[in-house]
Every structure is written in C-alpha cells, then in structure tokens.
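REQUEST FORM: STRUCTURE PREDICTION
Request ID: SP-0412
Submitted by: Lab K.M.
Chain count: 1
Length (residues): 188
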Amino acid sequence: MNFKEISNHYFTKIITAPCFDSKHGCNNTSLLFPDFYFLLTSAIGLYNEKFPESKIIITDTFRSNKFQSKLHSDGQSHYKSRSPHHFGLAAGIVFSDGKKIDRTGNYKHLFRCMREKGFYRVKQERYNFQHISTGKFYELRKFIFIEIRNFQLRYRLNPTGKIDKQIIITATELSKRSYYSNTRLLHP
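STATUS: Completed
RESULT:
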C-alpha cells in the first residue's frame, strides 16, 4: 500500500466529507480508498460467482472518531479511534433479501473470497474487513500523523498533529482548488 496515496485520499476525500465528525456510521463508498474498493468489489464478485442470487451490501465504510469511540465503549471494536474505517481501508459486509439486512448469508464462503483477495477480518468485528495488517496499519497512522503536522506547518496552522476545524476548512478549500487544477494536494 502506498502511504502517500492513502494520505492524499484522506486529506482530499475524507477530511472534507460532511460525515467526517458524525456521531453515526457512514455508508458512502466514495470515501473508501480506490484500491481498497476495487479489491472489495473483486472479492464480492468472487462470492457472487458461486451465489449469484445473493445481494451483498457494503456498509460502515467510514467511521468518525466519535462513532469509533462509541463502538469501542460498547465492546464492538478493539480500535478506540482512528480505525482502518477512518482512513477508507475497511468496510462492513452484510447480506440483504431486498427488504431487510440479513446476517445469515454464507459468510464462510465470503471469508474465503476475502482472504483470497488479501483481506483481514478483525475478530471483534465479524462482518468487517480490512486490507491492511494491524502492524502496517499502525505504521500508516504514524505516517498520517506526521503528514497532518506537516500540513499544519505548511499552511501556518497550529501544528498539533490533530484534525481541527481550521485544518478541515483549509483542506476543503485546497481540495477544491486541487480538483480544478488536477494536482495533488499533498504530494505533487
């Protein structure tokens, strides 16, 4: 995984998203890192080859720190904050009969398909998959912390290494300019 590309995605898509500081989960697949989303849909495609009648729904694509903290407090996640969901590198998968969510699909086969595409399943979060090992993920978190601090220094913001309203405003404005000029926000 390219940490610079993930960091750029985090700054241009995730920090600027309306649900960034939400108390609830988010199901917006555009917040998933593109390489992750491609592999996720590939794994779902493998599953559908054997069970074409199954309808799979991608859920829980982004988790704000507030929402992640609540899940951790409730014993539903071992990550207290900044989980792989927070960076677009994890998603939940459920089945649907077209009317309601159904968690009784063939998860055993789905797990095999996910493993075949290199996914990891977090034990505490049975229906969630991430495409980064825990060790690599902690390296990524450190890398992004440094990127946040560098961003704050570059744009003369308070260099705390934490996301605050000023960094969200700045990243949103720069993201708009970056979109129109077709340049990268962090790594030209």
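NOTES: The two ends are 18 Å apart (CA to CA).
Reviewed by: T.R.
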